[in-house]
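I hope you will forgive my troubling you with a question about protein structure. I should value your view on which stretches of the chain appear to form regular backbone elements. Here, with my thanks, is the record as I have it:
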Amino acid sequence: MSHEKINIFLTAMSMENSLLQSYRMLFLGLEAALIAARFALIRSDEGGDILGIGVAGLVVGIIWVIVCHAKGNDVNRWRKHLLDETGEGDLKGYFSYMKSGLSLAGGIVARYWFNWIMPILIIALWIWVTFIR
């Protein structure tokens, strides 16, 4: 195993993970702005296009799940290359925390929370405030 190869895998995985974090923040910011606009329109006497904002929020939530799941798979692909490359020898223990599974180590629980649970809760909120309430 070459250290050069490991550096490439770590760099690529870090770049993909950085993009994943950026996408999450972008989607979270968009949802927060849409939710604020939706509740501001309810408070005003005008009402505005509440249905349009609700549908936009639903669409952003669905896109959030699709994009962040795909980008998470990109991170996983580089992590797998790294673990395969360092699976034997003196570096094995350094990357063992990155193995798959629902553990706090390696950020797997956080990945499920930010890629699936949080956007699904926001989608449920949009359905409730747009169509049910």
About this structure: Residues 3-132 form one domain. The chain has three helices and no strands. The chain has one domain: 3-132. Residues 51 and 131 are 8 Å apart (CA to CA).
